[in-house]
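Lab notebook page, bench 4
Experiment: in silico fold of construct C2
Operator: M.H.
Input chain length: 410 residues
Purpose: comparison with the prior construct
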Amino acid sequence: MAAEIHSRPQSRRPVLLSKVEGHQDAVSAALLIPKEDGVITAGEDRTIRVWLKRDSGQYWPSIYHTMSSPCSAMAYHHDSRRIFVGQDNGAIMEFHISEDFNKMNFVKTYPAHQNRVSAITFCLASEWLISTGHDKCVSWMCTRSGSMLGRHYFTSWASCLQYDHETQHAFVGDYSGQITLLKLEQNTCSVITTLKGHEGSITSLWWDPVQRLLFSGASDHSIIMWDIGGRKGRTLLLQGHHDKVQAICYLQLTRQLVSCSADGGIAVWNMDISREEAPQWLESDSCQKCEQPFFWNIKQMWDTKTIGLRQHHCRKCGQAVCGKCSTKRSSYPIMGFEFQVRVCDSCFESIKDEDRTSLATFHEGKHNISHMSMDISRGLMVTCGSDRIVKIWDMTPVVGCSLATGFSSR
C-alpha cells in the first residue's frame, strides 16, 4: 500500500524517548535492534554494549564486552544475529548474539585494514564483509573463510561506505571530497565512475536502491543528491546545516531525507517535490552585469583606468558578478538554499515571497552527533557522539506520516 502523508505544523519536533549513558568515552556507533526495545552501542572506550529497555522504562546493559582496541564502526545483521565491530587497530571482530540478547559469542577476527576502520557493511547473500579504513582502502572479505578477497586503494583515507547488494556496486566516500563507484568481483574490482561536487571531506553516504539515488553529506555542511539511476548526471544541493553533516537516512516511501550534523542539528528535507538543480558557476574576467573588470584583469583595468573588483557568484543563476551587482541575500529552498545566500540583484527581484517558503524542518538534538541510525518501520532514530550520550528519538511527529508497513503505535 502507498504511504499516507499527513501535513504537520512545523511546531512538531522529535520526541526524546530515552537517554542512555554509561560509556566512558565517545560513542562511535549506535544501532536500534529491529522489533525490540533495545540498542547496540560501540565506543572509543573499547566496549560494545547491548542495552535493553526494562520495566522501569530505563535502558540497562544486558551485554558488556571489552575489546582490545577502541571501537570505530559497527554493523548488525538482525536475521542472523551477527555483529561486526571495526576497531582503531584495523581489525574487525565478529560476534553472534543470543536470541534473548543476554549473551554474545566471539566468532572470528578479520584482518581487514592496517589502520582505523571507518565503515562496515555485511552482505548475507554473498557472505561478504565490506569495509573502509584510514589506510586509504576498501576491502572485501569472505565471512565463511575469513580470508581477504580484494582491496582497492584511494589517494585519501576512505571515510564512508554504501553497498548495493543486488548489483555488487560499492560507493566509497573519502577525505578528499570524492565519491568512487566500484563494481566488486570475487577477487578484483573496477572503477565505474567518480563523483565530485563537495568542497570538503565526505562524512556520510546513503544509497536508495529503489529510486537509485545516492545522498552524500560532507564537512562543507552540505548534502548532495546524485541521481545514479537517471544516468543524466543530475545533482541536487541541500544547504541548511551549520556544521559538518555526520549522518543521513532517506525514507523512500515518504520521499524525505533525515540528516544530522555535528552541532546537534537534525533536519528533515522534503524530497517529494520538483527541485531545481544549482547552476554551474560561470567564469568571466569582468562582471557579467556591469562589465567592470575583476582584479586580475590587468588589461581592462589599464584600458579603462579603473580598479579591479572582487569576483562573486550568484547562487541562483551562477553568473560571475561584483559586489555592487549582488547586494542582496535570499533563501531559495527549491534549489536547496534554506538560509540566505548571495544572489545578483536581478535574481533577487525574480524571487517571490512564496519561493522562500522552507522545504525542510530543522530541530535541535542538544548534543554532539557523530553517528545516527533509524528504524524506519517504527519511526525511531538513535543518535550518539563525543559527549558519550546515546539518545533515542520518536521521529514520527516530524516525518509526519503513517506508513501501512510500519510506524505503528508502540
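Observations: Confidence is low (pLDDT under 50) at residues 1-10, 402-410. The chain is about 5% helix and 50% strand.
Next step: discuss at group meeting.
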